[in-house]
Design a protein that fits this description.
seven-stranded antiparallel beta sheet; 7 helices; hydrolase activity, acting on carbon-nitrogen (but not peptide) bonds, in linear amides; EgtC
Amino acid sequence: MCRHIAYVGAPVALREVLISPEYALYRQSWEPRRQRYGTVNADGFGVGWYADGDPVPARYRRTGPIWGDQSVVDLARAVRSGAVLAAVRDATESGSDGEAAAAPFASGPWLFSHNGAVRGWPSSLAPLAASLSSAELLSLDARTDSALVWALVLHRLREGDGMGQALSDTVLEVAGAAPGSRLNLLLTDGATITATAWGDTLWYLTEPGRGTVVASEPYDDDPRWCEVPDHTLLAATRADVLLTPLKEPPA
């Protein structure tokens, strides 16, 4: 169910994060090594990045597999950024939302991705959807579980919650409403990365003098990659990573 990655650090060409490593996200679209659910991530992809001096990220999203889009290869060669979030998608179920369903989702300074699936979608989250305003529901990018999870996170961010609080509270709320869901969430504001490991794999790599990468799986065999324990909140800057355990929601 999808693979995603985020990077913050010294400006690099996007290809150095997404394409050039031996087992990069590009290759993970057809040959992931650690994906537990699904086999091929060919139902869309997206790349979001930040330009110097502009807090609002740019995005490039498409419906088909990333390996069939030569434009993204050229873009990744030419564009440099100090903050990137990208994902390749394996849809939970078929739909007609097209590239609108592909992460990263975005609003203001934030980029967001969800790797996983909500158990019992859509009925399981109907009570949580009812807690959002009509305007928030009508603004959903797509009719997918990931888009609604993003709306719940965004609601908390707009109410003033920090990134870690917004992710952890949303995960616990959704897990309580839909037990057995896989909720690996990834969020960045261009300076920090916040993520949850909840039901699927998550790894990080901090390289002194370069930056920090957080990803569904390592993009190479560097022994410095660290796996994040399940039910954990991760908060990372270009130099540090903090891990905080998350408790199961009440029965």
